[in-house]
Amino acid sequence: MNLTPLQKFQNSQCLDPDNDFGPLTIKAMRFAFSLSIEQTANFAGQCAHESNYFKRQFENLNYSYERLLQIFSHDFDTDRNRILSDEEKQVARILERKPQQIANFVYANQNGNGDEASGDGWLFRGRGPLQLTGRRNYQLFAAAMNDQEIMCNPDLVVTKYYFESALWYFESNNLWSIAKKTNRVAIKNLTKRVNGGYHGLQDRINKTINFEGWLRAA
């Protein structure tokens, strides 16, 4: 039986590996990662929202035609006139429900990736609670972990460094200082830095406050 990253963490902390992110697990997380109550609540709140309580391991790129046009309209707008022609929309039709081809197309020539033919988009697609994405970020993370094997086996971000990838994101983007408070302003600012916008803000607030309650309970 293959354990999930959450179960592996629970095992390492002598907890029941039930794959349920509850009070005992978050309290163990606080001490394992040497975080304050507020930092733990914020970290878990953001990650739990992004990863469905640490159950999502890989980026889901199995998009419909309609969803592709919603999320990646800029990538299909090759002439950058902000209007998708029938020809540009046809590319989305061709890519619909083809995750590997989608990744190689939308992530080409950005964040350190090569062109579409290089396959970097798929190889360095999102992994971990906060979706580590792109060759450049994988290189930086591999250096931080002192493990260059990550570059030829990116799945290590899931199988070996799942939580570390999210901790590294917080550290490398100077988010721990924002995470010292759990008021609405702090959570909103943190959401902007993690998400690039405010998608799911209320859910992130609810989770963070709930997790703080678990951590402060006797």
Fold blueprint:
Blueprint: H1 5-12, H2 23-32, H3 37-51, H4 65-71, H5 73-76, H6 86-95, H7 99-106, H8 120-123, H9 135-145, H10 149-152, H11 156-159, H12 162-172, H13 184-195, H14 201-216
Helix pairs in contact: 3-14, 13-14
Describe the structure.
By secondary structure, the chain is mostly helical. 57% of the residues lie in helices and 0% in strands. It has helices spanning 5-12, 23-32, 37-51, 65-71, 73-76, 86-95, 99-106, 120-123, 135-145, 149-152, 156-159, 162-172, 184-195, 201-216.
Short description:
The chain has 218 residues and is mostly helical. The chain has helices spanning 5-12, 23-32, 37-51, 65-71, 73-76, 86-95, 99-106, 120-123, 135-145, 149-152, 156-159, 162-172, 184-195, 201-216.
Main beta sheet strand tally, sense and closure: none
Q: How much is the average pLDDT? A: 96
The shape is globular
Task: Summarize the amount of helix as a percent range.
Answer: 55-70%
**How many extended strands?**
0
Total number of distinct structural domains = 2
The number of helical elements comes to 14
Write down the Rg: 19 Å
> Low-confidence parts, pLDDT < 50 over ≥5 residues?
none
The proportion of residues in beta strands is under 5%
Going by helix content, strand content and strand pairing, the class is: mainly alpha
Q: How far do the termini sit from each other?
A: 34 Å
- H/E series: HHHHHHHHHHHHHH
